[in-house]
Amino acid sequence: MIVRLVHGTTEETVRDLQESLEREGLRVLRSRERSRPILALAGKMPKGLVESLTSRPDVEDVTKPMGELLLVARSMRERPSVVDVGSVKVGGGTVVVIAGPCSVEGREHVLSVARQVRDAGAHLLRGGAFKPRTSPYQFQGFGVEGLRQLKDAGEATSLPVVSEIMDAADLPAFLEHDIDCLQVGARNMQNFSLLKAIARAGKPVLLKRGLAATVEEWLHAAEYLAEGGCERILLCERGIRTYEKATRNTLDLTVLPLMREWTHLPLLVDPAHAAGIARIIPPLSRAAIAAGADGVAVEVHENPAEARSDGPQALLPAELVHLVAESRVMAAATGRSLHAPSRG
Amino acid sequence: MIQALRHQLRHLDGAILALLDERARLLLHTSITDPLRRAAVDDILRRHTGPFPADGVTDVFAAIDRHCDTFSLEEQP
Hints:
The structure holds two protein chains of two kinds. Chain A is α/β, with parallel strands linked by helices. Chain A has eleven helices and 15 strands. Chain B has one domain: Chorismate mutase (Chorismate Mutase Domain, subunit A), CATH 1.20.59. In chain B, 78% of the residues lie in helices and 0% in strands.
């Protein structure tokens, strides 16, 4: 249950209400937003509590979000949240492009791609160092050395970096190399021990939707992060498994406008993993922005045929330039703007 | 019918302005001289097949360049 108090409610009143609710056996969580006090109540609601709260003059409304969502629920914030990833702000009326190689394949390679990502006007550099591959015989990533190379490339180009973490035991390496955003991949979306561990890390987390997860399950995974202390969460739709075989997965843009009603968190779309086919990524990216995405995440490689992972879905650097330009047009057409480019 | 037409025109005007603002925002962060600008506009004109008059297209781009140049100069340190 979420209780929104009227503007101007004094701190003393809020504290008194919080204490009285806690005496009823409820856990009370408070929104970080300063514009008005908003309280989230967890636990079994005593009989008559909702009626009692709604009758108070200092309570504007009491709402029941989907499932057991509280901290990530839309009603927990006055405005959709904006997440800082390094110098880049995700959400809040600007659109970002995240780009980079699927896997970090070496120091020179990732630096070269990073320069092209920056020059294309993209905003965040992605690159996998720990790779969750379907087969154990496929390239598994360079691990910690990959993180180092990715971060160095990001620093050389003034691009904040995003990389996937698969195991909580690797968290110290991600922190030591100051990876700007921790990505939780589709396969780990409901790895709750991983979510709990990284929630406390003080880093932004990009949470991909599981390949067979409902929106409700996805948002509850985000709630784990928020409840664990993570204040900067990005959600990323990356396609779900359906009976359709024409594409690798089915990009579920249908849910984007609904997600806006259910959560205040920024929404990204990864059309590359959904499609698995490079040539259809530009139209899917345009569609994602048109549907309200705060950004798109794509993969870039100078020679996709030689890529060590996911080559068929990698854009060429020149194609990324077009994608960024098209994203700018789509952002403007939907009343937003593309985030300012890196000055690196 | 007329009301709907007016609505659509206003919406398009808003979209045109949004795109002009995006162009201006892009220049806000960079200083650029483009020696191929004239050729790029000529290329746009060659590809142009819509009902908007070709002379008008030339005039519109000339005005955009003139104002963006002024804007760019004003914004540069």
